[in-house]
């Protein structure tokens, strides 16, 4: 049996795992945005909190993924919960750092002009700073997504969903005729998702960023 014949026989399983993988990554990314962007907004003006937050997020990213997923089993059990928490932690650094960098790179002259027009702090943030920082923030989301697509495969080790289960099944069946096919299906699915998300973020950047500040 060829690889394509094997895929034709179990494509529903591959599609289901791909959808689960996508949902897992988007959940982790969404939580990282909900946590990370407000933290960046609160700390980007003050040096010590900013350095502390970015350093803490960087420290999380250095924890080996197998170790982190394993450590989260004790408080959260098996399945989705430890997978989502781990992915959220890994996504925080690119989300927070890029949001901080984007907000700090806004031209002070623009801010001064906005204040001169009578904008209060909230309106300045929502109407001037965040829109101007958006391309840099979006780049952080793009990097975080690519990062999570790979790390999410480890979720299979804690009974989490996604394409990692195909890879794990393939490794568990090493030596059998179709072990390599399972592993390739999982890897190919992740690579395909990475390409699709990259294209999606490129389109999103184009349609949500004004032409004057587009990179």
Keywords summarizing the entry:
ABC transporter permease subunit, transport, transmembrane helix, 9 helices, MetI-like, membrane
Overview of the structural elements:
Its main location: membrane. Keywords: Membrane, Transmembrane, Transmembrane helix, Transport. It is found in: Cell membrane; Membrane. The longest helix has 41 residues. By secondary structure, this protein is mainly α. It is built from nine helices and no strands. The model has no long low-confidence stretch (mean pLDDT 92).
* CATH-defined topology: MetI-like fold
Total of helices? 9
Q: How do the SSEs run, as a string of H and E?
A: HHHHHHHHH
Query: CATH superfamily name?
Result: MetI-like
CATH architecture descriptor text: Orthogonal Bundle
Count the domains: 1
CATH C-level category: Mainly Alpha
Number of strands: 0
What characteristic shape results from the CA principal axes?
A: elongated
Radius of gyration: 20 Å
Q: Runs with pLDDT <50, length 5+? A: none
The CA-CA distance between the termini, in Å, is 48 Å
Estimated share of beta-strand residues: under 5%
Q: In this structure, how is the largest beta sheet organized?
A: none
Bin the helical content.
over 70%
Structure class: mainly alpha
Mean pLDDT: 92
Membrane topology: Multi-pass membrane protein
Protein name: ABC transporter permease subunit
Subcellular location: Cell membrane; Membrane
Organism: Allosaccharopolyspora coralli
In short:
The chain has 215 residues and is mainly alpha-helical. The protein has nine helices and no strands. The chain has helices at residues 3-43, 47-62, 65-71, 73-76, 80-104, 108-116, 121-151, 164-172, 179-208.
């Amino acid at each position: 049996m060829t690889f394509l014949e094997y895929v034709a026989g179990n494509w529903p399983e591959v599609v289901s795992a791909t959808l689960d993988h996508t949902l897992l990554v988007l959940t982790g990314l969404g939580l990282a945005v909900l946590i990370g962007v407000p933290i960046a907004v609160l700390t980007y003006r003050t040096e010590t909190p900013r350095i502390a937050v970015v350093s803490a997020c960087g420290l999380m990213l250095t924890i080996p993924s197998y170790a982190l997923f394993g450590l989260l089993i004790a408080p959260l059990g098996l399945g989705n919960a430890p997978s989502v928490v781990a992915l959220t932690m890994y996504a925080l650094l690119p989300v927070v750092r890029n949001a901080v960098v984007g907000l700090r790179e806004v031209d002070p002259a623009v801010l001064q002009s906005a204040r001169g027009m009578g904008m209060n702090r909230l309106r300045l943030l929502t109407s001037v700073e965040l829109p101007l920082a958006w391309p840099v923030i979006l780049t952080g989301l793009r990097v975080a997504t690519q990062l999570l697509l790979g790390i999410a495969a480890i979720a299979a080790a804690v009974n989490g969903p996604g394409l990692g289960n195909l890879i794990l099944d393939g490794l568990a069946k090493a030596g059998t005729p179709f072990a390599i096919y399972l592993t390739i299906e999982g890897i190919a699915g992740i690579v395909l998702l990475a390409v699709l998300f990259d294209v999606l973020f490129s389109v999103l950047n184009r349609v949500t960023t004004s032409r004057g500040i587009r990179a």
